[in-house]
Amino acid sequence: MSDLTRDAERSRADKIALRDRLLTARRALTPSALASAAAAIQDQTLSLVRREQPTSVAAYVPMGREPGGPELVVSLSAHTRVLLPVLLPDNDLDWAAYPGTTSFGDANPLAAGRRGLLEPAGPRLGVGAVAQVGLVFVPALAVDRSGMRMGRGGGSYDRALSRLPSLGSPLVVALLHEGELVDYIPAEPHDRPVDAAITPGGGLTVFGN
């Protein structure tokens, strides 16, 4: 086995171990901690949208214990057009517009897609639509101080982010819980960095990529 192959396998193993630790920490969050974090994340994202005033943003519906809570999209859509991901059979991401500002509940305008992702039923805009927005909010399990992002391992967002014109255009922001902004994440060639991260207590952190 070459040194390069050995280093790649060690890096992959380190990522798996870190991912497991982060998921365990999320599972330990109490309902009150999740609600408090969601409210703070929603305030921070809205503050950024008001400051940047984009005509549209790409976002996602946080599921389970992801930061932001399901009402994140509703709050964003009151201020700008919101595109949501549609998971394709090959795990790439198409995009469709969120259809309204109705709070989630009986009138939820989204339907369950692949892997339980909540998706709009409207026209698909193509995988390249993410490059046409002013801000991109992405899920992450962690981000390090250089902006390297760790997702859940499917590679969907790495593929989507590879279509953006350049780093910083549009601004890509990961949403995190406390403790998920870390010193270092082992990176593989396909991994894509983000420009900034938002945590409930720390607000917006912009990286010097």
Termini separation comes to: 33 Å
Strand percentage: 15-25%
Report mean pLDDT, rounded to a whole number.
Answer: 88
Q: Describe the global form.
A: globular
Name given to the CATH architecture: 3-Layer(aba) Sandwich
Number of beta-strand segments: 12
Low-confidence stretches: none
Radius of gyration equals 17 Å
Counted up, domains total 1
Mind telling me the CATH superfamily name? NagB/RpiA/CoA transferase-like
Strand order of the largest sheet: 3-2-1-6-9-11-12
What structural category arises from helix and sheet content? alpha/beta
Task: Tell me the series of helices and strands, N- to C-terminal.
Answer: HHEHEEEEEEEHEEEE
* CATH class term: Alpha Beta
| CATH fold-level label | Rossmann fold
Level of helix content? 25-40%
Question: Which key terms come to mind for this protein?
Answer:
Rossmann fold; globular; seven-stranded mixed β-sheet; 209 residues; three-stranded mixed β-sheet; alpha/beta
Structural description of this entry:
The chain is of the alpha/beta class and 209 residues long. The chain has a single domain, classed as Rossmann fold. Helices cover 28% and strands 22% of the residues. The chain contains 4 helices and 12 strands; from the N terminus they run ααβαβββββββαββββ. The protein has helices at 3-27, 31-52, 72-77, 156-161, and strands spanning 56-58, 81-87, 93-97, 110-112, 118-120, 135-139, 142-144, 149-150, 171-175, 181-182, 196-199, 203-206. The protein has a 7-stranded mixed β-sheet with strand order 3-2-1-6-9-11-12. The radius of gyration is 17 Å and the shape is globular. Its EC number is 6.3.3.2. Pfam families: 5-FTHF_cyc-lig. Belongs to the 5-formyltetrahydrofolate cyclo-ligase family.
